[in-house]
Write a structure and sequence with these properties.
By secondary structure, this protein is of the alpha/beta class. It contains 12 helices and 15 strands. The protein has a 9-stranded mixed beta sheet with strand order 3-4-5-6-11-12-13-14-15. Helix 6 links the parallel strand 11 and strand 12. It binds S-adenosyl-L-homocysteine and iron/sulfur cluster.
Length: about 425
């Protein structure tokens, strides 16, 4: 997409204070947030307690800071207001005090596109001018927002376009929750006082939602979130966790954790913490069932192999038949799509006794990719074999292809890399493996 070309320039420039971690097992590096030029503090991304602390620092006494923080928090995350003037239960004189010191940020929209199938894609920009993407996929019974966790990715799965970019930086909690808030802005889905949250079914036992708002959608509702945009969420653990906490909080965005899915390429050491500290559904980008093939297409496999990964899945807190782990499996012609591969997949799932379903994803090709998508007949056959073993194996329908919006393959850069260039990049990254 020509309009998207601007991104490549940005994504190749590492931010000054973001050391690029190693390629296979990068240590998440906390990045300082670039201070705003106007000296104001952006409240989006901050939890209630931190808002209270900065209100106190700004001069309110402890009790007032706490009360104001509670009110402001509600307006920010539950009502989605973008101006302090709209906070009607805060004294009129107090509102300018807030506006002088703080802002209510949203990622900047560089471009918004709508596909002929209703899929929407946004090209977004951070305050320090790094571009990333977000996609909304409406279905008959749900609307799924595909959220990015990083600009670029340190890993380089060979079929993934994001993998050809370098990591620019982690997104902050504000930039992550900001994506969901922006989507609600665009879809007109903030609750208004006095109704019920029609359309959102909180099918869990935690009843995190407050029943005091009504959603007015301009079509379909944003009901689900998948951390499947750009980046590896478990290499930006703290920020992803903090953002999702705001999303799940009943007085925040109030989206049930059962409707949120985090997808990882297999950062084994972080998986238990993800279960314990975030507790959302888990999706694992498996994509291959032999060491040889997975080493090639999902290189983190050289660090954390298939057995370790599946053991971590078996240990994932909260996994059960009611909450199965999703294995993503991209269908690559003559690479991972044979009958034997399907049978090995079944064997592995049974060996580890995993409550699992398999999402078969037709490979979404991009210029310079080393693979082709399996034929529809092959995908069908593969799905049948897995399904016959009692494992659900839906084939994911490609969406938004006309706007390059395939979830997980956010084709941010239209920059055309030559095959040679891609090979050199892969070699470089491999050399870093040691
Ligand atoms: N980094 C995380 C989450 C983002 S990728 C992860 O790897 O799981 C989200 C999903 O999209 C992953 O399963 C990824 O493997 C898949 N994906 C990436 N590129 C793709 C492509 N070209 N075609 C189809 N699926 C792709
Ligand atoms: Fe990164 Fe996920 Fe793409 Fe792999 S598939 S390069 S982990 S975004």
């Amino acid at each position: 997409m020509r309009e998207m070309q601007t991104i490549s320039e940005n994504t190749r420039q590492p931010a000054a204070h973001m050391p690029i971690p190693g390629h296979i097992d990068p240590v998440p590096v906390p990045r300082e947030v670039t201070p705003r030029e106007d000296g104001k503090i952006d409240l989006i991304g901050l939890p209630r307690k931190q808002i209270a602390d900065i209100f106190a620092e700004a001069g309110l006494d402890a009790k007032a800071a706490k009360l104001r923080a509670k009110q402001v928090y509600h307006w920010l995350y539950h009502r989605g207001v973008t101006e302090f003037e709209a906070m009607t239960d805060i004294a009129k004189t107090m509102r300018p005090w807030l506006a002088e010191r703080f802002v209510i940020g949203r990622p900047e929209i560089v471009e918004a596109q709508v596909s002929n199938d209703g899929t929407r894609k946004w090209l977004l920009r951070t305050a320090d001018k790094h571009d990333f993407e977000m996609v909304f996929i409406p279905d008959a019974d749900r609307g799924t927002l595909c959220v990015s966790s990083q600009v670029g990715c340190t890993l380089n799965c060979r079929f993934c376009h994001t993998g050809t970019m370098r990591l620019v930086r982690n997104l902050t909690p504000g930039e992550i929750v900001g994506q969901v808030m922006l989507a609600r802005d665009s879809l007109g889905e903030w609750p208004k006082a006095g109704g019920t949250m029609a359309g959102l079914d909180f099918d869990d036992d935690d009843s995190e939602a407050e029943d005091d708002g009504i959603y007015t959608a301009d079509g379909r509702l944003l009901t689900n979130i998948v951390m499947m945009g750009m980046g590896e969420p478990l290499y930006n653990f703290d920020n992803v966790r903090d953002a999702l906490k705001l999303v799940m909080d009943g007085d925040g965005l109030a989206l049930s954790k059962r409707r949120i899915t985090l997808s990882t390429s297999g950062v084994v050491p972080m998986m238990a913490r993800a279960g314990a500290e975030i507790g959302v559904n888990l999706a694992v980008s498996l994509h291959a069932v032999t060491k040889e093939v997975r080493d090639e297409i999902v290189p983190i496999n050289r660090k954390y192999g298939i057995d370790e990964l599946l053991q971590a899945c078996a240990d994932y807190p909260g996994a059960s038949n009611a909450r199965r782990i999703t294995f993503e499996y991209v269908m690559l012609k003559d690479k991972n799509d044979s009958d034997d591969d399907a049978r090995e997949l079944i064997r592995l799932i049974k060996q580890y006794n995993l409550p699992a379903k398999v999402n078969l994803i037709p490979f979404n090709p991009w210029d310079g990719a080393a693979y082709e998508c399996s034929t529809p007949e092959r995908i069908k056959r593969f799905a049948e074999i897995v399904f016959a073993a009692g494992i659900s194996a839906p084939v994911r329908t490609p969406r938004g292809r006309d706007i390059d919006a395939a979830c997980g393959q956010l084709k941010t850069s239209a920059e055309k890399k030559s095959r040679a260039e891609l090979d050199r990049l892969a070699e470089e990254k491999q050399a870093a493996l040691g």
